[in-house]
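Table 4 source record.
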Amino acid sequence: MEVSLREDYLDEVQGRGRRYFRGWVPEGAPRAVLQIAHGMAEHSGRYDDFMRFLAGRGIAAFCMDHAGHGRSARTQAEYGFFGDEGGMAAAIGDMRRFTQWLSGAYPHIPLILMGHSMGSFMVRQYLAQDASALNGAILMGTGGVNKQVGMGIMLAKLERLRIGRMGRSKLIDKLAFGGFNKPFAPARTPYDWLSRDEAMVDAYIADPACGFAFTAQGYLDLFELNRAVNSIEWARKLPPRLPLLLVSGDQDPVGGMGEGVRQVADWLKATGHGRVALKLFPGARHEVLNETNRQEVYEAIACWLERVLER
């Protein structure tokens, strides 16, 4: 099937800038549309291979660069900064505006929302607010309760006072990511926790739009989001009939080596959500779309999408 790249910009919800997006679409009308919310300190271009794969199956797939990421950041100084107070809420508002754009561009076509890592937490907040425009959601590389998030919030507030909203703190970086590589010692790079595929890790390190430190305000936004969506009360806010797929590696430190992902699935099932699927890939680390078995991951997601479309 012929597929093509589509890219453009949308005005962001606060009216202060524009958000870049890209997508791969099949020839003719797609059978479904997948909207992707990427992870922390990366960008939409890293999803091209996966989006092309889906487009080849007749599913249009799009990803937008969040505020402070990729081409949505006007300068590198904006990397890792969502905005002043309410920046994360505005970023989730940008996602909702993108959903509206996709619904207008592809009317009456099923729309599924997927988030990876930080994007999965953003999707979780999105779903708790209003999921009426969606036919399903995928949470990839997500996690459960983080016992250090309270300390992270306190530290981010203190560092914000010390260095300002746009300042960057090595202390916060260490708290947030310092332990992720420990299970993989002796580590070849600081990012071995991302994938077993060394070429993918090296590509991430070589990409100037990846791996940057968040600002103090950006970390505060991230930590507060993590706390907001990590309880059974969050699960009660979701539509009980919405199809949900949780997919991660069982060696992903963000997901507590699978335990945090199971915790999220348990909250959903305990609150009456009857269409929850959980898939943990043995040996896989954080970026399952960039893992050594990524074709298996692609196929598993495609199969789940097919089941959603059949229903």
